[in-house]
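$ ./design --mode recover --in tokens.txt
reading tokens...
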């Protein structure tokens, strides 16, 4: 008879570097998993992928035993690794943080193929391309014109915001000058009216 899955837990752990310390210990300890055994098994299974962050899906059974499945590294991690950057663009598609080649895109798509909802490499490349666009990573030969147009739009929007900020600062300065003049409050009686 098959064991009944009581709970599924998903974590992202650096390959070959799992330790009983947080976050692994704080998540797996309360559910009754032997932390040292899990860390040893995970590290052995992921030793060949050192340096990558690996998602792992842990199935906990009713008899307190468990199994785990290693997934491919997240697309964002692979894109940053290919682009040799630590952080993606803060403004998403409106700010180009780095550029990769179409060959890099294809390699990432082939790596992620088993975890993506795609039937072929071209569909997987489209999915990864969308992730890259949202991270501000341009792909040479795929979306050069589109990214150039978006960059021009973003620059125009920034100029417009700077102009509005300058106008607002001017208005605030003129309001501060006007505030120093006497202001009569409507509805309050002056001393002359009360006599």
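writing sequence...
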């Amino acid at each position: 008879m098959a064991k009944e899955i009581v709970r599924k837990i998903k974590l992202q752990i650096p390959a070959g570097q799992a330790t009983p310390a947080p976050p692994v210990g704080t998540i797996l300890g309360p559910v009754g998993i032997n932390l040292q055994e899990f860390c040893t098994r995970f590290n052995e299974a992921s030793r060949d992928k050192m340096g990558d962050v690996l998602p792992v899906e842990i199935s906990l059974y009713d008899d307190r035993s468990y199994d785990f499945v290693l997934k491919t590294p997240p697309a964002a991690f692979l894109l940053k690794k290919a682009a040799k950057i630590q952080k993606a663009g803060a403004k998403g598609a409106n700010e180009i943080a780095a550029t990769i080649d179409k060959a890099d895109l294809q390699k990432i798509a082939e790596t992620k193929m088993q975890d993506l909802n795609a039937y072929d490499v071209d569909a997987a490349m489209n999915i990864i391309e969308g992730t890259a666009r949202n991270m501000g990573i341009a792909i040479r030969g795929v979306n050069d014109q589109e990214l150039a147009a978006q960059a021009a739009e973003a620059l125009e929007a920034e100029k417009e915001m700077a102009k509005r900020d300058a106008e607002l600062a001017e208005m605030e300065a003129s309001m501060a000058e006007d505030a120093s003049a006497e202001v009569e409050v409507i509805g309050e009686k002056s001393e002359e009216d009360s006599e």
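exit 0
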